[in-house]
Amino acid sequence: MEVCHSAPPRARSVDHNGSASNIRASATYALAWSAMAKRKAFVAYGVRVGRHPGVYSTWDQCKAQVEGYARAQFKGFATTEEAEAYVQGRTPAKKHRVDAAIPNTQGIDGHAPIIVYTDGSTLGNGRDHPSAGYGVYWADPAHHSLNRAERLWQGEQTNNRAELMAILTAIKLHPDKSRPLQICTDSLYAMQCLQTWMPKWKERGWKTLLNQDVKNRDLLESIEAAMNTCRYRPSFTHIRGHAGHHGNEMADQLANQGARITDT
């Protein structure tokens, strides 16, 4: 389901004649904007035209990209896949809403994927000495010896870095690189970095649209190098955090354990 095709126009968007059609259009956009802000069921928001086009997980993030931006185009969606397809200008295959949280089990070339769940955690966020950790949980019990609960020792102690480190660790631990690897994460930030933003950042010399240095470049480059060692490029599935999904809940527990590890 989707609503809201553009940001509400500013007052100057109504022509000097103040025609009834323009006034009605302004009212329609305003109502759509209000509906988007109030709706709670959206999983992702796609910004096709705005300050930083991409997929966002909250209305506030989406609003920051389109409010006051001339001719902005954006929509809210029930799945991340639909939002990504909208941003890329294509039509996604119709799926039942819960499919966004169900890993693919068909695989590639007849090879069933190996499914892994990753998560990051930061304790004491906003305080003087936060501590971040990450968790890696493998769906197949045969691979549980590869589960990890680790502390993030290097770099800023942020949740985003922990999420990326979990993904990097999962790829490095991939037990059979001749088979597809499906990484299930609740981090839209990580998915957007690796699937949407990174190619553009690389073209600009690892600079954002605002000509600022890209954060977490070291981890992103390491993940890219690790993915290139796999026969099949790892795929990503967005899992809604804290929604009762066993694999995600286990990865979350491991990440919290990792964040509590002390340097002793």
TrEMBL record:
Molecular function per GO: magnesium ion binding; nucleic acid binding; RNA-DNA hybrid ribonuclease activity
Record flagged with keyword Metal-binding: yes
Lineage, top ranks: Eukaryota, Fungi, Dikarya, Basidiomycota, Ustilaginomycotina
Organism: Malassezia restricta (strain ATCC 96810 / NBRC 103918 / CBS 7877)
Annotated CDD domains: RNase_HI_eukaryote_like (cd09280)
InterPro entries membership: Ribosomal_bL9/RNase_H1_N, RNase_H, RNase_H1_euk, RNase_H1_N, RNase_H1_N_sf, RNaseH-like_sf, RNaseH_domain, RNaseH_sf
Ranges annotated as spanning the membrane: none
Matches recorded under PANTHER family: RIBONUCLEASE H1 (PTHR10642:SF26)
A Pfam family this chain is assigned to: RNase_H
Function as written in the Swiss-Prot or TrEMBL entry: Endonuclease that specifically degrades the RNA of RNA-DNA hybrids.
Catalytic reaction list: Endonucleolytic cleavage to 5'-phosphomonoester
Family: Belongs to the RNase H family.
Cofactor section: Mg(2+)
Name of protein: Ribonuclease H
Keyword Nucleus recorded: no
Keyword list, A-Z: Endonuclease, Hydrolase, Magnesium, Metal-binding, Nuclease
Domain RNase H type-1 per the UniProt entry, residue ranges: 110-260
Entries under Gene3D superfamilies matching the protein: Ribonuclease H-like superfamily/Ribonuclease H, Ribonuclease H1, N-terminal domain
Enzyme class: hydrolase
EC number(s) on file: 3.1.26.4
Taxonomy, superkingdom: Eukaryota
One GO BP: DNA replication, removal of RNA primer
